[in-house]
Design a protein that fits this description.
Blueprint: H1 2-24, E1 41-44, E2 47-52, E3 56-61, E4 64-67, E5 76-85, E6 90-100, E7 105-122, E8 130-149, E9 152-165, E10 167-173, E11 176-181, E12 188-200, E13 211-225, E14 228-232, E15 235-239, E16 242-258, E17 263-274, E18 283-284, E19 297-298, E20 300-311, E21 316-328, E22 339-351, E23 356-365, E24 372-378
Antiparallel strand pairs: 1-4, 2-3, 3-5, 4-5, 5-6, 6-7, 7-8, 8-9, 9-12, 10-11, 12-13, 13-16, 14-15, 16-17, 17-20, 18-19, 20-21, 21-22, 22-23, 23-24
Length: 382
């Protein structure tokens, strides 16, 4: 298994290197940035390779559009990520960011559906290694903010998530049957309400070179869990379905530093901080820093990523990334050690007139089982 995975990752790395060699030699005509007019839009459809433990070697397509609602509002965008893996796992993910009413209102919405025939999860029973199981996950959230100050938006945030795992029938007591999660993880439904604050002065939402972005999400979450086996010291025990409520805070900070006309440095810090009742799987490091996955997970987590990007031509660029992060309040037997990841990648201005950017990165980290990851997506890592 490990030999096969290493072979696949080596092929992917070789493909990236080959593409890079050809891209650098490409001759292009300069393209000037143009401002969209109200009612105008640009559509594109990048398609490319992808590697992730959830999908193995996969194909990703990202249909997307950029548009403008009115004269005094900045550019809005919408995209759909479509991923189909060689292990038959597939995912549909939609995100849209809209500025309208003369830039006084901001709406951001996200929704996804994940059908995992063969998902890799951290083993929270033994505390070591990974296990495979089937998983269905779908979620949706949205925030509507009003601008009380320039470039700042404050408004309500609503989020819903359902997580469902495959089950094997076993017996709790003689004559009483119920269903056991393969990894002793309960099916859950989460409903969250709260406030979202967004501050955004990035000069471009896809390939920014200057500006700052800050987002705070303050939520109260109600989580319902179905009956399952729970880990206790010395073994496991049956746990009836539970319902808990906890508070959480999600923080994202991005700062862009233009070093020259073609070179820029990015600093991004993301944190997820959750109340004691959230459980020790609430904050996967992979959601916060580039190069990490669910292998490093805790009740809370914090990660910082630096990216240095240089444009070789008017359309093609290269980038290097370095990330460090740490999970807190992890499951018994798991480590709270500081994690590191480094990566290299390509950038391509798919729609240069509006700065629509495509990235392809490969990263290596000190994670034990998921040390090498690859990313293909629309927009940069911010």
């Amino acid at each position: 298994m490990k030999t096969t995975n290493i072979f696949k990752k080596t092929l992917l790395a070789g493909a990236l290197a080959t593409l890079a060699a050809g891209f650098v030699q490409a001759e292009e005509q300069p393209v000037e940035r143009t401002e969209l007019q109200p009612g105008d839009y640009k559509f594109s459809l990048p398609i490319g390779p992808f590697y992730d433990p959830d999908f193995d070697v996969a194909l990703a397509a990202v249909p997307n559009a950029v548009y403008k609602w009115d004269e005094n509002s900045i550019q809005s965008d919408a995209r759909v990520n479509l991923i189909y893996g060689s292990n038959k796992n597939w995912n549909i993910y939609h995100v849209t960011r809209n500025y309208f009413a003369n830039n006084k209102w901001f709406f951001e919405g996200r929704a996804s559906y994940m059908n995992g025939k063969d998902m890799t999860m951290a083993n929270f029973i033994t505390g070591n290694g990974l296990v495979s199981l089937q998983n269905i996950n779908y979620m949706a959230w949205g925030t509507l903010g009003y601008s009380f100050f320039d470039n700042s938006y404050l408004g309500p945030l609503v989020e819903y998530m359902h997580n469902e795992f495959d089950r094997d029938p076993i017996s709790k007591k003689p004559g009483q049957s119920w269903m056991q999660p393969v990894n002793y993880i309960a099916d859950t439904d989460k409903m969250s309400y709260g406030l979202s604050f967004t501050f955004n002065t990035l000069d471009d939402q896809s390939s920014a070179t200057d500006g700052r972005f800050i987002q705070l999400k303050m939520l109260k979450t109600n989580k319902e869990s179905e009956a399952h086996l729970a880990r206790i010291p010395g073994g496991v025990e049956y746990s009836d379905g539970t319902e808990v409520t906890y508070n959480s805070l999600a923080v994202e900070y991005i700062e862009m530093f233009p070093l020259s006309k073609k070179t820029s440095l990015m600093w991004k810090t993301k944190g997820s901080f959750n109340g004691k009742k959230a459980g020790n799987q609430a904050a996967p490091l992979g959601r916060l820093g580039v190069g990490f996955s669910r292998e490093s997970t805790g009740r809370s987590a914090l990660a910082t990523t630096f990216m240095l990007r240089h444009w070789l031509t008017d359309r093609w660029g290269v980038a290097g990334t370095f990330s460090t992060g740490r999970p807190f309040d992890v499951a018994e037997g798991k480590s709270e050690q500081v994690m590191y990841a480094a990566g290299i990648g390509l950038r391509y201005l798919l729609v240069p007139e509006q700065g629509v950017n495509v990235r392809f990165d490969i990263t290596a980290s000190n994670q034990d089982d998921e040390a090498i990851l690859a990313y293909f997506n629309l927009g940069d890592i911010f």
